[in-house]
Amino acid sequence: MQIGLSLSLTAQLRSSSTYAVLGYDPALVFDFKGNYFRKSATDSTFGASITHTRASSATMVNSSGTLVTVGNNVPRTGHHLYNGSTWVNEGILHESEARTNLILHSSDYSFNHWSKSASTVSGSSTAPDGTSTAQSVTPSSASSRHFLYKTAGNSNMPAVGVTTTTSIFAKADGYNFLGIADGTSQYGRFNLTTGQVVLSVGLVSTSIESYGGGWYRCSITSTGTISRQQIFSVNEDAANVSSFGAETFVGNGTSGITMYGAQTEAGSTPSSYIPTTTATATRAADLLTVPAANLPYDSTNMSIQIDGKMTGNTLTPVRWLLDANNSILLETGSNNFSFTQEAVGTVDTVTGGSFTSGTNVPFNLATRNGSTFINGAISGTVLTANTTPTALPNLSSTGLNLGHIFMGTIGQFRMWDEDLTDAGITEAST
Questions:
Q1: What does DSSP assign to residue 21?
Q2: CATH number of the structural domain spanning residue 129
């Protein structure tokens, strides 16, 4: 695993007009993609503008598409995603949930912690982290199912009833279809040539994400109803992926699938890869806090914009909260978005749009909050304003949390101590 950080945290000078909306310059700018930071209408730096903590190392993808590790409390700015042809800087990778990889020897399938069925493990090809640690799982010439697995008796495996996500990096090496199963009644199948999920049975969700060079990260999310067994199978073609147990075929002894970075974690989404050897490993939660002194506040009008890509469903990208009775929130709701302000216990909300849970789902939200109104806009579409508020919460003494409940990337965050109007938040969220 390489150690590094793809971008410096030094601010680059830039005209504030780059970030203006309807001629209004934001008082606060965090451009995590462009590595530009601004507070109190003055150019700043990451460290002077916002506080980041994480009590562990963590992985991210740099501009070369290489999976790298950064140290404790190092923000994962410059995290890249593959768009099918190139690596794109998506800003800061932020994961508010701590996660633990329960699979030991996550990338060494020759180790005796791994059982093999009618398969051999060999090779040392280039893995997503740039090291020669990827291994080929090659079916034997027996007429059989061919797979790696962790047995139900493994003490690290999750208990019945716990929602978990199991993932692995995989690349076609003669055979194109990967299977991932949690026991015998919950399983998914993935086409490593087309990058598609071809079967999902009994699962909460499935996902497949391209990492370039033929690599994909495939995942299943399940809630186990029997003793858990994590199975990674090699499938010959589409004809034998229709059900669990249908994968029987005669291998040619040379074709297989190259694998790297197996992970099982409690949680409803795949998180960044957490490598393990002889013990489980935990990636701590990220925390992003904007100190109160750095926040623009006006007792009458405020406007906020944030964009990025989200993974999961119940998320809070922005939480500005003084106490249980005073706050401004930007959240995902039940298949929609919610913009809320609460002043002295009186709650006013605007909801709308549509949100479908998935992996790296784009979002762009803007809100205008005032003593007599609240409204939101979603990707250039403005909602209907709520004009029932009678006060704006006084949040001048408290900091703001970015990604309070959030798994994904944040590209940009802006704040204005004035009302952008409906036209302004429409433009800001475009």
A1: B
A2: 2.60.120
Note whether 253 and 114 are same-domain residues.
yes
Q: Same structural domain for residues 269 and 134? A: yes
pLDDT tens for each residue of 397-416: 999 999 999 999 999 999 99
What is the Cα–Cα distance from 97 to 85, expressed in whole angstroms?
30
- pTM of this prediction? 0.93
Final residue of a structural domain among 283, 299, 329: 283
Name the residue among 277, 287, 279, 282 with its Cα closest to residue 267: 282
Q: How far apart are CA 162 and CA 266, in angstroms?
A: 7
CA distance 266 to 163: 6
| CA distances, 239 to each of 198, 214, 246, 252, 332 (Å) | 11, 22, 9, 17, 39
Q: Is there a contact between 92 and 409 (Cβ–Cβ < 8 Å)?
A: yes
Q: pLDDT tens digits, residue range 137-155?
A: 999 999 999 999 886 556 6
**In this structure, how many other beta carbons lie within 10 angstroms of the beta carbon of residue 327?**
18
Q: 208 with 296, same domain?
A: no
Which residue do the tokens 């008082």 mark?
27
